[in-house]
Amino acid sequence: MVFCAKLRRELPGLARPPFPGELGQRIYEQVSQAAFDMWREHQTILINHYGLNLGDPMAREFLREQMEYFLFHDVQIMPEEWIPEDQRGTAAPPVKGAAPRKK
User: Fold this and answer.
1) Domain span at residue 44?
2) Does residue 94 belong to any structural domain of this protein?
3) DSSP secondary structure letters along the chain
4) What domain count does the chain have?
5) In-domain check, residue 44
6) Is 102 among the domain residues?
7) Is residue 88 a part of any domain in this protein?
8) The CATH number of the domain where 32 resides is what?
9) Within a 10 A sphere around the Cβ of 94, how many other Cβ atoms?
10) Facing residues of 10 across strands?
């Protein structure tokens, strides 16, 4: 059990640090499994919205910074222009014109 920095209550923690290093150990000691699962969903949104290539060191650094902010700060920042799936319209995108008529 850990007192979760994100959810502000005592919850089951991670089974082991999510990755090596100081940040991985901090997450293991201060973040619940539930909050880390929330991060993984948010990470997917960021990867898809920005089209991140995880082979790019800059993309990985961006995600690391976002993860630290997400887990250890009160505010959740969503990408600009991001709309949750349940709030998106079901209408098709606007059509730019019909195909030419056959003669």
Assistant:
1) 2-79
2) no
3) -EE-TTT-SEE-B-SS-SSSSHHHHHHHHH-BHHHHHHHHHHHHHHHHHHT--TTSHHHHHHHHHHHHHHHHSS--PPPTT---GGGS--SPPPP--PPPPP-
4) 1
5) yes
6) no
7) no
8) 1.10.3880.10
9) 5
10) 3
- From first to last of its 103 residues, what are the pLDDT tens digits of the chain? 999 999 999 999 999 999 999 999 999 999 999 999 999 999 999 999 999 999 999 999 999 999 999 999 876 666 666 566 666 665 545 545 555 566 6
CB 39 within 8 A of CB 71: yes
pTM over 0.90: no
CB burial class (10 A; 0-12, 13-18, 19+) of residue 13?
Answer: buried
| Residues in the chain, overall count | 103
